[in-house]
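assembly run, all chains below
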Amino acid sequence: MAAGGGRLLNPVGDILTMNDKRRCHALLVEAGVPVPPALPDVGSYVDLRAAMTAYGWGRVFVKPAHGSSASGVIALAVSGSRVMAVTSVEIGTDGRLYNNLRVRRYDDEATVAGIVDRLAPDGLHVERWFPKAGLGDRVLDLRVVVIAGEPSHVVARTSRTPLTNLHLGNARGDVAAVRAAAGPAAWGNAMQTCVAVARCFPRSLHVGVDLMFRAGWRTHAVAEVNAFGDLLPGVLAPTGNDGAGSAGLDTYEAEIAALLDGRYANWAGSCVR
Ligand SMILES: Nc1ncnc2c1ncn2[C@@H]1O[C@H](COP(=O)(O)OP(=O)(O)O)[C@@H](O)[C@H]1O
Ligand SMILES: [Mg+2]
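ok done. output:
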C-alpha cells in the first residue's frame, strides 16, 4: 500500500532494478534468461575501446544505465581506426547533448569519444551488438507485456536503423508475420523467456520485455525490461488461448482484470524466489 492508500502495481524495488540496466542485466543472467553479454564497468571511451579489443567485440550497444526511449543509446561499430555510431544523440550548438527524433550517424572518432565521455559519468551499460532478425529491409524486436505471468500483449517494432523504439518514427510491424517467420518453436521459446523475465519480478503485476530474435530466428535475447512498458494504446490481447486471461483487453484493462480475478495473487504465490 502506498502513501494515500493507493495500491502499487509494481513494487518500488523492482522498478529501481528495471531502471538500472546493469542491475537488471545481472539479475537476468543469474536467472538464466538469455541476454547479450555485457562488458564490465566502462568509465570512458578509452576504457570502452580497450574492453572491446580485449573481448574481441567489433560492435556494441552503449546504453546509459538509467536511460529509456533510446535516449543516449549508441549502436557502435569499430574496425581499426574507423568508427560508426548510430544514435539519437545530437550535439547542440551549445555543446550539450540532446535527444533528437532523427537518428543520426557519426563516423568521426573524436565526436563519438566526446559523446561517450559525456554519458559515462552517469553510468553505462555496454552489450555486444545482437544481430536482430528482420523482415524485408527492416530489423525488428518485440515489446511483450507480461501481466501476472502471461505474455499477453505483443507489438513488433521495425526499423531501418538499429534502434527500433517507436517514437523515433519506426513502424509497428505485423506480429503474425513475425510469428510465422520465427515458427512455433522459436516463438514459443521466446514467450517462455518473457515468462522467465516476469518470474524475476514476481511481485510486479506487469513487465514490458524488449525481446530480440537473432537473424535466422533460432535464438533470442532480452534487450531490457521496462517497469512502465505497458503504454500500448490500442493494442489488445488476442482473443482465444493466446490472449489467455487478458483476451480482448488492452494492457490497463488486463492489469485490473488480473488483480480482480485472482490471477495476480496466484501468479505471485506460485513464484519461488
Ligand atoms: N545488445 C543489443 N544488440 C542489438 N540491439 C540492441 C541491443 N540492446 C538494445 N538494442 C536495441 O536498441 C534499442 C534500445 O534498447 P533498449 O535496451 O530497449 O533501451 P531503451 O531503454 O533506450 O529502450 C532497441 O531498438 C533495441 O532493440
Ligand atoms: Mg527499450
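Residues 175-199 form the longest helix (25 residues).

The chain is about 30% helix and 30% strand.

not gonna interpret more than that til we talk
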